[in-house]
Structures are given as structure tokens and as C-alpha cells.
UniProtKB/TrEMBL annotation:
<feature type="transmembrane region" description="Helical">
    <location>
        <begin position="81"/>
        <end position="102"/>
    </location>
</feature>
<keyword id="KW-0812">Transmembrane</keyword>
<feature type="transmembrane region" description="Helical">
    <location>
        <begin position="108"/>
        <end position="126"/>
    </location>
</feature>
<keyword id="KW-1133">Transmembrane helix</keyword>
<feature type="transmembrane region" description="Helical">
    <location>
        <begin position="51"/>
        <end position="74"/>
    </location>
</feature>
<protein>
    <submittedName>
        <fullName>DoxX family protein</fullName>
    </submittedName>
</protein>
<keyword id="KW-0472">Membrane</keyword>
Amino acid sequence: MNNVASILLLAFLALTFLQSGYEKIFYWKENVAWLKEHFSKTILKNLVPPALLHLLIVELISGILCVVGAIQLVTNSGREFGFYGAVFSCICLLMMLFGQRLAKDYDGARTIVIYFIPAVMAVFWLN
């Protein structure tokens, strides 16, 4: 099996985004309340629910594509779904990074960079 590292990265991204999506779906009100406070001094203060919904959709797309991509790598060494899963993961993380920087939460932004590095590695390896 030549794709073990790529499969592990896709599993990491799938777990990250599917779990995050699950949290947003089942704890929507708590997330919205916390984020309204987090973004209260930014231009996003009145856009939290639609922005969170948009982020949720991108997270679910990312997670599903990563799962399908890992399965595709195992079954026939195809890379298309995994590549797009990794790209969507990067887009999702950039969206989060933008929000954290806008809210001046530099520690939160730094944490997102930790996730961004393996996502970019996945894009590179699956390209």
C-alpha cells in the first residue's frame, strides 16, 4: 500500500470536520451564543448564524469528501475525492482563520494553523 500517509491525513481531516459538524448541528444554539459574543466587536456580529451555517456546510463537504477519498485510495488508488476533500478542508480552515484574526483571537488563529499544515500536505500529496 503506497498511500498510507495520504489515507491517514484524510482520516485526520475527516474526523476533524465531521466531529466539528456534529457539534455544530447538535449544539447549534450554544455555538451561536458563544460566537455572537466572540464576534461582538467585528463586522460579523450580525452575521453569525448564516456564517456558521456556511462553515457547517463546508465542513460536512470536507469531511465526506475525505472519507470517500480514503475509501477510493484503498480500493483503487484514485486520488480525486481525497484531493477535493483536502482542498475543501483548506478552504474551511482559511475561513476559520479569517474569523479568528478578525476577532483578534491570535491564539485561536495559531491553533488553526496547526490543522492547516496537514491539510496542505494532503493537497500536495494527492495532487
